[in-house]
Sequence to fold (366 residues):
Amino acid sequence: MEHIENSEEFGGLVVNSGVVQPPSVNPYMQKRPRRKPMPTASELVEGILRGDVTMLSRGVTLIESLQPAHQALAQEVIEKCLPYSGNSRRIGITGVPGAGKSTSIDVFGLHVLKDGGKLAVLAIDPSSERTRGSILGDKTRMEKLSTHPGAFIRPSPSAGSLGGVARKTRETIVLCEAAGYNNIFVETVGVGQSETAVHSMVDFFLLIQLAGTGDELQGIKRGIMEMADGIVINKADGDNIGPAQLAQAQFRSALHLFPPTVSGWMPEVLTYSGYYELGIPEVWDMIDRYFAFVKANGYFEERRNRQARYWMYETIDEQLRNHFYRNPEVQELLQANEAEVLANRRTSFMAARQVLDHYFKTLREK
Ligand code: GDP
Fold:
């Protein structure tokens, strides 16, 4: 068709008729093989024990899946891997955003991999929105580590209850250990309950702090400090060396006020710089000393046993709670009783009794 712009008025301009657009779907796409079928539990276990990273990743994806069939398969894989697990150093790393966790994990990681072995970096971050970002971030934030053949970096399972996210990370540890990862880092953002969750699955809990933020010894941090087996003050470089040393002294004296730890280990306080890689071997010497200490006095085993017991009851609690609250009759009764309680017509205790009695009755009738 003749184009209007080919008229005299637009002299000098020639508009050619266009070419036919190619189809937007690549016709060869269909010929590509479909996604590989799900391996069986034995295939997964065999792959994991061989140290096959693809199989390990698929196993972890199963652990994270919400589909009941996947969960069942995941549990089978975990049980089969369990006898091969446990042979690692599990280290929890926490610190507020900006404390330098990723920078530090990058250099700590390379430090532990220097002597061979393998390292898995896992995370617990129940705040969903951040999760994707931070984890996508992890690959880039931990630049050196992410290209190291001995490192396996896995983001936090995506949002759910903290208990659920933590359980998945704990199960992922089992698979990683079965795959031969003898160093496990579990990172968490130091802003809430997630430290307790991480603390309940690691052998050593490292708290990264900064000098001069003013909140070192206050409020919520105190609980976290009490959990720490080691406190390290990052960014001890340049003008910040003085303040970092001052903070070190403050932390040391604060720790003396805490009751003695169950392990008998006195938490140490060190300064270092993740960015300029200063004081890194000293931090790892401390961790080595800790492991030697708790392995010698039996606390290492004791802590792991206590954690295993904790997770058993934690899982029971979670499942009982879910079973109860997801029951439609319970939901209805809860709503009705809540209204009665708020209207001052029934005591909280009686309302709870009524709902529970009904729940137990339906259980007996089943
Ligand atoms: P995260 O949020 O705890 O993971 O912290 P990042 O590792 O992302 O670090 C936060 C910022 O602090 C980044 O801009 C880093 O470059 C900087 N940083 C980390 N470690 C050091 C250090 O040892 N010294 C200095 N001066 N800056 C650091």
Notes: DSSP finds 14 helices and seven strands in the chain. The chain has three domains: 36-83, 85-312, 327-365. The beta strands are 89-95, 119-124, 151-153, 183-189, 204-210, 230-234, 268-271. Residues 327-365 form one domain.
